[in-house]
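[09:14] KT: can someone run the structure on this one? pasting the chain below
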Amino acid sequence: MAIITITSDFGLKDYYVARLKACLIRHYPLARLVDITHLIQPYDINHGAIVLGNCYYDFPPNTVHVISVDGTDFREEDYIFFRKDDYYFIGPNNGVFSIMFDKSPDAIYKVRLQKTEDLFESVANIAAQMLRGVAFEDFGEAISSEEFVQRLKLLPIINPDFISATVIHVDHFGNLFLNLKRDQFEKTRRGRNFALHFQVGAPIRKIHQHYHDVPIGDVVCRFNDVDLLELAVNMGRAVDELDLGHEQSVQIEFEN
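[09:31] RB: done, structure tokens below
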């Protein structure tokens, strides 16, 4: 079954999502449409990259992933498409894909314009051509690596005896995702004790597996399902109770 996912900052109060879906159905009636979310913070490509980047690989190979974040004021040629990791991707050339992937796609294409189309028609046409197996060269034009927009990705600062990690995402429950992977933490830790300092309260000195490993109302530090270090409050909202928010930092010190 052909699958097309949609991730956007369109919201749910307007007609934008319905128009895009209508165009996709007209261009490829057999496709199954899956909404990842339309509640990406407006214009926040980092948010869009985190959400799609942490779930696209759970879909069957050959799924088409459409993302539109900060992408409605565009010229058609600014929408790009490519194949990577056995999946197809369509979205604006605004840096969202450079944040999502550590390595750039091998070959990136833009639409070869034949006539003026709006955003939704253009995206739907690209998706349909992909699902029909049309060679990208037959309906698109390859772009150079210099034309592929790159944005800086927030990375942790890692030294032998400490790590400075940054909050890159606050989820629906108020949990704080840090830009630190388990393997980065363990490689630097080398089995040592640690103290994680944040803006309020005593430092955290233990990694737990589950939220309920600590009493209700207590802070829990864990590696979540996408292997990012997470700060949470059991049955609470860490973003409110820890005085931490997006792009704020925590310090992790290791004992010698």
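[09:33] KT: thanks! The CA atoms of residues 76 and 110 lie 8 Å apart.
[09:34] RB: yep, looked fine to me
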